[in-house]
Amino acid sequence: MSNRYAAEDLHRFVTQLFHRAGLAEERSAVMANVFLQADLLGFTTHGLNRVCSNLNWLVNGETRKEGEPQVLSDRGGCFNWDADFLPGPWILSQAIGEALRRVKERGVVTATLRRSQHIACLAAYLPPIIEAGCVGILTCSTPAERTVSPQGSCDALFSANPIAFAAPAGEYPLLFDISMSVTAGGYVSRAKREKRLLPSESLKDSHGRLSNDPAALEEGGSILPIGGADHGYKGAALSAMLEVLSMGLSGYGRGDAQSSRDDEANSVFVQIIDPQAFGKSDDFLRQTTALCNLWQSCHPDEGSDAQVRVPGQRAWSDRARQLKDGVELYPSIMADLEPWADRLDVIAPRALDG
User: Angle at CA 338, nearest 5°, toward 334 and 342?
Assistant: First the structure.
């Protein structure tokens, strides 16, 4: 059975699901686009895979369906909004759109959000930044979440704290979206659901022993920071930096009491840079293109047939291919969405042949 669907069919389907769950149609379309972009780029754990949880938050009232963010501060080149549990993909899209409108005049625009409902995949927000010829830096943290342990400790302290970056280059942008943990929580959850072990010992159990059993996380364990068991102090330091940028600058984080509603709510940091504020765009593109080309031309390790991987090359190629030929959904995604389609009386799309 095919798991490939036309991108426009998936967008229409997910838009209708969010609209039937009580969200305005325009906001529903923005939500659907963010989740779809994640799958187009290959980030299958945080794309359409997260639609069901977002529908559940809407229906249960954990996500605010209407209203605007509260502007806490605005100095033109930087602003801070309190989202008060507005849908994460919608409110972050609004913040990025506002930053892009300002950046041609300001050169650099920095924004923070507090109490945004879960924003899913950071990479999904990068295409419009790239298409505007800008550099984008995004990071987020979850004040109520403790899943990643610092070096030398069996106690979980940090959230996964992903950071995404994009810069225009040649045929493809330099683009990545990585967590400050050895593996992402989405992969741990998927492995547990599929009753398989992780490919490496990327977890600690509650006693601090290394483990590849996804159940260890649920049983009081933690995910290792970037750097793993030997060099995790580097990942812990980066985790702290990103929590300062997102929680510290937004003014909401570990220093505040959280309710059950905060479980998935994010603090967010966004910075958009217009290279033309520093010089000619051709000069900038000459440098970024040269970097990617040199990286791509590096020889692979002896005995390896794999091409040296430049971040963004595969994702951008996958996006173009899937927009043309159909989106290859992870097998469990449509199975999870079909009960919501029945519940909300929305017709699910048909898979493409082949």
Answer: 165
Amino acid, single-letter form, for residue 35 = F
Altogether, the residues listed in the chain come to a count of: 354
Provide the sign of the torsion angle of the four alpha carbons 246, 250, 45, 214, taken in this order: positive
Q: What is the pTM of this model?
A: 0.93
| Domain ranges (residues) in the chain | 68-283
Q: How far apart are CA 249 and CA 174, in angstroms?
A: 27
Angle between helix 51-60 and helix 7-20 axes, rounded to 10 deg: 20
84 and 63 Cβ atoms separated by less than 8 Å: no
Q: Which long-range contacts (CB under 8 A, 24 or more apart) does 251-254 make?
A: 251/72, 251/80, 251/114, 252/82, 252/114, 252/115, 252/143, 253/141, 253/143, 254/143
What is the separation, in whole angstroms, between the first and last Cα of the chain? 8
- Of the candidates 75, 80, 121, the residue with the CA atom closest to the CA atom of residue 102: 75
Cα 287 from chain centre:
27
And the tokens for 126? 């990068």
- In CATH terms, 68-283 corresponds, of 3.90.550.10, 3.30.1370.60, 1.10.630.10, 1.10.230.10, to 3.30.1370.60
- Kindly tell me the number of DSSP H helices and DSSP E strands found in the chain: 12, 12
277 and 108 Cβ atoms separated by less than 8 Å: yes
Helix (H) or strand (E) holding 211: strand 210-211
Q: How confident is the model over 273-307, as pLDDT tens digits?
A: 999 999 999 999 999 999 999 999 999 998 888 88
Residue 1, pLDDT > 60, answer no
Tokens of 138: 């995004």
